[in-house]
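Known limitations

Files may contain more than one protein. Parsers should not assume a single record per file. Below, a two-record file is shown to illustrate correct handling: read the sequence, read the token line, then continue until end of file.
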Amino acid sequence: MGSATAATTPLVQPRALALKNWLSPSLCDMFFLAVIAWSFMTSTTGWSRLLWDGDTAIHIATGNWILDHGKIPTADPFSFTQPGAPWIPYEWGTEVLFAQLNHAFGLKGIVFVCGVAIAGLIVILLRTMMTAGADVLLSIVTALFASNALLIHYHAARTYSRCSS
């Protein structure tokens, strides 16, 4: 075995280069901001579109009930026509989150978190396509079309509800 001299690269980057790479925004970082601008800042309705669903108030009320009582209700505590009817709040995790956000920041907190979650979902779609080897430009266009197609479903009450059950 001969001792061949090979150019080796250090396994650890110099501190300045690592900091520069960490602070430089990636394509997905910029796309995240673009989706927020595209979805919420360019339209006349803006962020308020996330409150078009009337269920946001009942989600906050249910979250408040859970926080006040320390348990998930098994009977509907809000019904006038069927008081005490069996009820399972499948979205209890979202409802607790909404109640806490509403208490801390008001409706603006709920809207902000839901807007960030929606933009995050679109970025995950973009990253998934790019990781699978799709063309970057085609991936961006597809993610923007998906975001535009989903605009009608952007409601604060729907953003987390399917994930919390």
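...continuing to the second record:
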Amino acid sequence: MTDARARQLLQACSMAGIDVPGQVALVGIDNDPLVRLLTPIPLSSVMHGAREMGRTAAHLLSQKLHRVRVPNAPVLVPPAGINVQASSLYLPAGHPQVMRACYYIHQHACESLKSLEVAMHLGISRSSLEAHFRQELGCSVHDVVLRCKLDAAKAGLDSGERSVAEVALGCGFGSTQYMHLVFKRELGCTPRAYRDRGFGAPELLAAAG
């Protein structure tokens, strides 16, 4: 029902030896950034869509002020979506080494994780792990690590709570310049343009309307 309850359930699974998300996938509600920082596995969570709720409430209030009859029934505002993190990223059955590696990558990608570290965690050679990734996923270990970093950076920019430089360092890119390069190559825009597209456009449209 909330991210706090999901965090407690995550702790209970850990104490019971139940793998998340291998055996249980968890999705909370609230998309609370503080809870994500306090969980050992980043928590997926439903985004309420507070901005749309505010718009809807303001519209209803305006109607009441202008003596327009409004329905007595509750007005339901659908959620904005789900911020998908590692806690719900269940992978279909495949090569067990690849599955274990992907879970580990989702948990540690933003810690400047290297392919060799992933292989050492699994107790196999780097060349063997790379071969398994090529066969199962058609990409390298580095590609998956970079994809996780990019997803984390997009979520950080979407939240609007940190600067571009803070997001770059927090997601393990090492520098703003490197994150800029990855965004241009993968998304066709700069990190700043990506953030402004998500947060600047609605206000501009509202002002224009």
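Parsers that stop after the first record will miss the second one. For reference, the second record is described as follows. The first strand starts at residue 27 and ends at 29.
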